[in-house]
Amino acid sequence: MIITTTNEIQDKKVVEYKGIVFGEVISGVNMFKDLGANLRNIFGGRSKGYENELLAARTNALEEMKTRAAAMGANAVIGVKMDYEVLGSDNGMLMVTCSGTAVIVD
What SUPFAM superfamilies does this protein's entry cite (predicted)? Predict the structure, then answer.
């Protein structure tokens, strides 16, 4: 399945619009990743734990969107947008959402 942020796919023609499709993931960041991130906040550097968590959440959200698009009979999703939020009373949850238009292309 083709997933793209553009509204067109080169050398493809949209023959049918199936509708808006979403993918959502909410994941918790554990205290060990928080501890490592806090140390990096003090001393500088990248937080590999948070980066890996973000990568996994983004990948899972896209996979969920792709699965939902396929269930609608689509073979592509165009105009994909991603959004990131932190949730929870201590901002310990990461929410990644994506949306796009499920279509059939020839």
Answer: YbjQ-like
